[in-house]
Amino acid sequence: MNSNKDISSPTDNNNAPTKESLKELIIKELLDLFGLEDVGNYTAFVNKALFIGFIIAIGVFHIFNSHRAVKMIREVGSLEKEIKELRWEHLSIKSDLLKQSMQSDIERSVESIGLKRIKTPPYKIEVQPNEN
Prior knowledge:
Helices cover about 65% and strands about 0% of the residues. By secondary structure, the chain is an all-alpha fold. It has a domain at about 40-105.
């Protein structure tokens, strides 16, 4: 801020600052603070402020979008890892099932309960009807 300016200069007859003059003074000091003292009137300031607000909104949207994209990329990576693990588990279970369904493995597993492979082919039993 400029130290040459007198803050109490915009006053009315009673030597007390009015509400409007106080607003103008605050706006002028803010403009000086941000280096925008060349703004001619309030309308030009509002137009520039709207443009600056629009640029800030675009920046916030861009940051939000970037964070969202990074989050989605991380989620996709973790899902790909999970799919890879599940694929390996599926292949492991599938190979175990194929091994257990082989005839020789089935014969070994049922031998413990006393079942054996038959040596002769199966035959058909036919029942004669009773003549009562």
